Amino acid sequence: MKQNSEYWRKRLELLEQAEHKKATQYFYDLEKIYKQASYNCETEISKWYQRIAVNNQISYQEAKKLLNRDELDEFKWSIEDYIKHGEENKISNQWSKQLENASAKVHISRLEAMKVQMQHQVECVSGREVDGLSRLIESTYTDSYYRSMYEFQKFGVVGSSFSILDEKTIAKIISKPWTADNKTFSERIWGKHRPELISKLQNDLAYAFIRGDNPNELVAKIRKEFDVTKRQAENLALTESAFFREAGTKQAYNELGVNRYEINGTLDNVTCGVCQDMDGRVFETSDMVVGMNSPPFHCRCRCTSVPYFDDEFTQDETRAARDENGKYYTVPADMKYPEWKSKYVDERFTKGIKDDIIKANKEVIYNLEKLKKSGMAKEDYNEYLDIINNHENQDITKLYSKYGDGVDGIKLQPSRVSQYDPTANSISFKYSENNGNKYSTLAHEYGHYFDKSLVVDKLSFNEMENLREITGFKNYFTNIASQSDEFLTAVRKDKEHIRSIINSDVRNDLKYHDSSHGVQDAIDGLFPRSRINWGHGETYYNRRYAAIESYDKMVRGTKRKQLKQLYANMGFDVSNQNKVKAICRQYEAASEMWANIMSAEVCGGETLEYIKMYLPNSYKAMLEILKEVE
């Protein structure tokens, strides 16, 4: 019996550790969102102090004054921008309506304006927290259920055919409250954490003006309030994740007829008294009650339940399980989880959803023939196809469906530099090793291919047409998505955005996180000689200007002067030729930004969060372009 118990403890501990790591990564991503929101509040407050403070103080009377005409115009511009980017920031419909009402006001005090600015940051954080936690919990529940099924079937726990989880089923499960106060995680964020933080920030603001605090004192209070709520968010994420991990395991118990379970409360060296007392106790599955005889027993609890059997089992055998028709099939004991999931979950799921996809008029890609022949392992090819087919952004699925096989060739070449060759219309790639997702390079090179290939009638290319006319270099200045007037405008907005927030702390954050490579590359391209750790380098980004310069020197031409005049007519600062050169490198930067953003959108995760934080305008522009793809 000891061998039995120890085996299950070991297997379920590994599952818990994997899910706990996932929850920790989610919080790490969320922590950056909180940090950015706090920074945004601090920036807005600093602007007000610079504008209206006397002796580094703002009196309450001064704060209560109505906005003057210029201040009101600026405030309304900010509100319009909040509304415009509301969907990507996951703000609620209620807050969106409040913003519209605020925008319509003709009389509003400075204090009210500051409160709106701070509340908006909280609304954005809360929206993204709910969205991220929902995805974490869905993933945790699903992984726990399937991995439990895998372990049980592999070692002969035979019951009825297990269910394939669909979106509606999972949504119903995670929307059901389980805590004593009958609140879901969403209600806890929207109904408790959000209003509490808003109230504290707004009170801190008013009291700071009444007391005559200097900006540093007020900023310190703002940081403290965000830190407190951030800790609440961490506790919530780890506890909710623990509950839904156990919920997934419990469903596996029920479906396979596991009648009893044992508490494993010895996951780490530091175990609380409650968990020590529960460790090793055995309960009936039908009597499972969270907090009483089933984890989590407390906030951030890491206890697990493991199945309890009276009989012994042996490893390295072939085990039997039943399919949906009641027939038995064998599961080799040495079968790995990815292989099991592909065979017994993904194939059934794909078979079941094809008709639903057709009925819902959704795109589905059954095959990417060129990628299939690239040399990828079958499981890698299937995994990438799943990423595209199940992507929450249907425009990505449509893009691959329409253009994915238009590339003439794709080849996995681990020993060569990854690239898209527009002349041969071919992709060579290798797996990423240090960027958070093994397929990020493949998605990046696909991004370059899509940039060249997609057709969008609504895009304009006035700048490219002028450049071709001036330089005669038709192959350097082409009508592709990343060189459209619309995307270049967004790129230049992001350049100013980065310029406004970059400092030593930001550079260090980027420097030590591999997921920021796309943002680092953008900085390398947009700002001469500003590479942090990652980027294509000066020669690469200056190559278009270098070609023009080389031509002028060869024939004593005037193309650089004409280029300078064009940029002057567009309103750019061209006070010296280096500034002309810096503008010209933006085209290469835009091309790489497009591919990096495309890769982040496909692969998701922390890389995408960095893109949204540092390149919000370019990210939004790309999404809008994809919606218009012919």
Summarize the structure in words.
Pfam families: Phage_Mu_F (PF04233). It comes from Monoglobus pectinilyticus. It is a single chain. Helix 5 packs antiparallel against helix 7 and helix 15 runs antiparallel to helix 21. Among the domains are: 30-240, no CATH class; 462-627, no CATH class. Strand 4 and strand 5 (328-332) form a beta hairpin. The chain has 25 helices and 8 strands. With 630 residues, it is mainly alpha-helical. Helix content is 63%, strand content 5%.
What key phrases describe this protein's structure?
single chain; mainly alpha; 630 residues; 25 helices; 8 strands; three-stranded antiparallel beta sheet
Describe the secondary-structure layout.
Blueprint: H1 2-52, H2 60-63, H3 69-84, H4 93-104, H5 110-154, H6 167-174, H7 185-211, H8 215-256, E1 260-264, H9 273-278, E2 282-284, E3 304-307, E4 318-322, E5 328-332, H10 337-359, H11 369-372, H12 378-389, H13 394-403, E6 409-412, E7 419-421, E8 426-429, H14 440-453, H15 462-471, H16 485-501, H17 504-511, H18 517-526, H19 538-541, H20 543-555, H21 559-569, H22 577-584, H23 586-603, H24 606-614, H25 616-627
Helix pairs in contact: 1-5, 1-8, 3-4, 5-7, 5-8, 5-10, 7-8, 14-23, 15-21, 16-23, 16-25, 18-23, 23-24
